[in-house]
Structures are given as structure tokens and as C-alpha cells.
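Page 42, continued from yesterday. The earlier attempt failed because a stray header line got pasted into the input along with the sequence. Redoing it now with the clean sequence only.
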Amino acid sequence: MEEKIKTIENIANERIKFDEHSRIIYREITNNEGELIDSDRYKYFTGQKHPIGVSKYTFLGKSKTSLLSSDTIANAITEETSYTVDVLVLGDSESYCSFIPMKIWEQHGITSYCCGTPAQKLNYSYYLLQKAFANQSPKVVLLETNALFRNFDSYGKLVQKADRLFSVFTHHNRWKLRNDSSEDASSGYVDIDNSKGYRFTTRIASAENTDYMKTNKISAVISPANRRTIEKILSFCSENGAELILVSAPSTLNWNQDRHDAVSKLSKELNINFVDLNLLNDDIKIDWRKDTRDKGDHLNYFGAEKVTAFLGKYLSETGYFSDRKNDERFKSWNDASENFNRTVSEIRKHEKS
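This time it went through. C-alpha cells are written below.
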């Protein structure tokens, strides 16, 4: 029996973020009227059919198919036990490359979740913020500031309204999707179950421009639309009892003094705390020869460990949090931490062999 045709109206009633990757898929499997024309591919992307042509990789002697995109992981915050997440992290790939929730837990007993996605724009940050607060009440929301310089348009809002087709993108953080053309596939990530949004990689590609704060020539204009969206995010956090904190992750390609000054000015005008990790390297000690996976664009695991140690201490000193490691209600976090550390240890051992 031929599968029932789905129109754009049907799609709008389902619950999934229509990100850049799924927009492409949507265009390929529907006609101009939004009707489904490739049911096999639809079944694959909604998990109803085993994927065809998805790359497989062998790790630690086990062959597995990776079915996990960063967007899937971000939306999987809805699967966390209600009202257990202390800190919510939003932002683009700088966020999920720099912040390791399992290390924050191990060192301070603070629960956190990273809802970072590739090239995340502030309208989607706001969407994820609202989604997370549906069943969580974090005391702190960390927003990585690279998103402040990514502009969005009304088309993005329209697509978000019709973002319902592929439920595989909303969650199921036990599936793993790797498309060879995706950002994830080219980044050397290894998916570690229940790592709360962090993307693990030990790839090293040294950065050359370590004087980037002075010499990097990139735009530092915060658009009016982004300004309005930050104000909405701030208002939402305030109304829900959370503190919004702006954080700039170390990046030789995405940051400079002009961007720091622009965010600093905005944070003062809106009375938001701002932590620029690019100016704190005496404390964090990023080594750009070893701590980046792609010549300074993003941190690898070694750099993220250093950033996380600093941010964990910063968060613990806010006075908002108590150590939950001995709380029986959070036993699953101890289990996840043990699994994370065991997997990282196995990866490192495998790499050295």
C-alpha cells in the first residue's frame, strides 16, 4: 500500500527542528507542493528503515554505524530526567567542542547539558532554550558568543515553523547518524553514549596565528535582529529564574579584540556577565600546538579539558550549586561519568597502540 502523502501542513504539526541538513533532505524527498516523493529515504531518516550507504567505521574492534548528529544530541535534552539539569549550554560548534559536562560532574557534582549545534543561530538558541525549560529549570544558561555574529532571516523562522518532518533529528540519543558530507563526519568525532552534548575528538591540527586577538580580521557587528534575540533570551532566563552568562570559547579563527569589545559593550548595556576565555590564557593555558583539532577553529579534547576545568571552578564559585555526586537521585550521572572516562581511556590506549 502506497505510503500516505505528507504535506507541509502535516509537517508543521510534528516536533522536530528543521536544521540546515534536514532542509536539504526535505527538498530532495518532497515536490514543490511539499508532498513526499521518496518514501524509502523518508523511512531511513525517521528510523523506520536500516540506512543504506551510511558510512561504517571500526573502533576498538567493533563495527558500528554512527547515527547521531549534533542536532539530535542537542534536542535529546528532552530525554533527561525532569528538573535535573543545573546548567544549560547553548551555541554553535564552539560550545560542544569546549565544554565537557561529564568533567563538570566529576569535578564539582554539577549537572550540565550542551545544546550546541553546528552554525547555531540565535533564533535556534532561543528555540532550544524554550524547549529545555519545558522539563528543566537550570540555574545558569551559558551562551557561547560566536552565535552573536551569525545572522538569520525570516526564512529561518518559516522553516522552523515547518520543522516537523524528521523525528530522528529531535532525539533518540541512542541512534547515531553520520553522513559523510556532514560537519560531524569531517571532524573526527567519536560518539560516546550519554555524554550530555559534548563531541569528543583527540585530532590535532596546530594553529599558527596565536596573536589572533590583534591580527584576526573578521566582522564584529552584532545585528539588530541578534540584539533583539539576546534581549528575548535574557528576558526568558530572568522570568524563569536562570542567570544568562555569555562565554567566548578560545578560537584563533572566530575571535579577535573587536568581537570582544562588541560583546563586552552589549553585556554592560544589558547587565549580563561576560567571560572571554580568549583573554584568560594565563589561567587556562591553551597550547595552540596541541589543543586544537583544526588549526585554531575548535578545541580538541585536550583543550576542552582545560576550558572545562576553568568553567567548572567558575560555576562552583557562583554559589548556585551543591555537589550532587552522593545524591542517590543522580546515580545515573555517576554511571555516565564512569562510562565516559572508561571510553576516553580506551580511546587513548587504542590511539597509542
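Notes: The chain is about 40% helix and 10% strand.
Reminder to self: strip header lines before submitting.
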